[in-house]
Amino acid sequence: MEVSEALIPSGNMNHFLLKLFHSRVQPGKRAYRQHHHTEFEIAVFKEGCGTYTVGAKTYSIHEGDVFLFSTHEVHCITEIAGCDQMVLMNIHFEPRFIWSPGNNLFDAKYLKIFFDRNENFENRLDRYNPATEKIRSLMLQMEQEFHDKPPEYELMVKIQLLTILVTLIRNYNYVNETGSGYPVTQQSLAKIEEAMLFIDQNIEKDLSLEDIAATASMSRTYFSTIFKKLNGISPWDYITTKRIEKSIERLRGSDETVLEIACSCGFNNTANFNRAFSKITGKVPKDYR
Fold first, then answer.
1. Residues 38, 238: contact at Cβ < 8 Å?
2. Across the strands, what pairs with 66?
3. Relative to the CA of 245, which of 27, 259, 267, 277 has its CA 20 to 30 Å away?
4. CA pair distance 34, 139, nearest whole angstrom
């Protein structure tokens, strides 16, 4: 049993709150590129070995390893060793999948492993910590839920993800215990989520921070502060990354020119588009055609 891709959509069907998918990579060295995204990532390696490069640090990869990446954290697999392909399962999820209001059980405090890391943090979970096997098992259970789709499977996936986050906080000395906390009211959470939905639905339009903050009934400064506290990324970085993700879909699925795609994804010229594209993907648009 293997799920190629499974989604839990957001209020805007063109975006997802959680995506589970598999990647298969052939052996060999790979050029380092500035790859990052707006979602948190938890990845488990099912087969293969190699090297993961995260900023200036490198990690060896073995079968069974679990890696964590925060929003906008640059990471890239730079080598697949041996003669067999590498198989990994990724779980990408938006922070709001956890902190979205409506149920007090789900709260931003469970995201401390991404926001309040201490000096002991490692992107690759300790291989010898028994909790790592528990997390691997929970990830495979999430895949099974997507595969079987029993009643309320999406809720069960969310519960399993929350269990992973609590397991990380409890069993690894990776979290700063004196972190700033998350004194954000339920009303503010609801307003930020409303603003994010507004961004998602208008990503191709000429957005201004004033207009976005107004949808949350907040000042620009306060909105930007709360937005980054909850998402680990500034509003403009979020917008730019989402626009690039949208452009990749268009590049792969249409014959439009780069200029047409850039303009339809919220960029006013190809120079700005190409600069943002390279910064976020480490590639150029033609690499996706």
1. yes
2. 44
3. 27
4. 26
Domains identified in the chain and CATH numbers = 5-171 (2.60.120.280), 183-289 (1.10.10.60)
What percent of the chain shows pLDDT beyond 90? 69
Q: Which residues lie across from 42 on neighbouring strands?
A: 68, 91
| Residue 257 token pair | 């020119």
pTM of the shown model:
0.84
**The tokens 């469970």 sit on which residue?**
110
Q: pLDDT tens for residues 125-147?
A: 999 999 999 999 999 999 999 99
Distances (CA, A) of 252 to 13, 121, 278: 19, 37, 17
Determine which of 9-23, 93-107, 184-198, 210-224 has the lowest per-residue pLDDT on average.
93-107
Dist. CA 76–CA 282, nearest whole Å: 10
What is the Cα–Cα distance from 212 to 210, expressed in whole angstroms? Answer: 6
pLDDT in tens, 255-278: 899 999 999 999 989 999 999 999
Q: How confident is the model at residue 45 (pLDDT cuts 50, 70, 90)?
A: very high
Question: Is residue 228 within 8 Å of residue 243, measured between CB atoms?
Answer: no
Letter string b/e over residues 211-222, b meaning 16 or more CB atoms within 10 A of that residue's CB: ebbebbebeeee
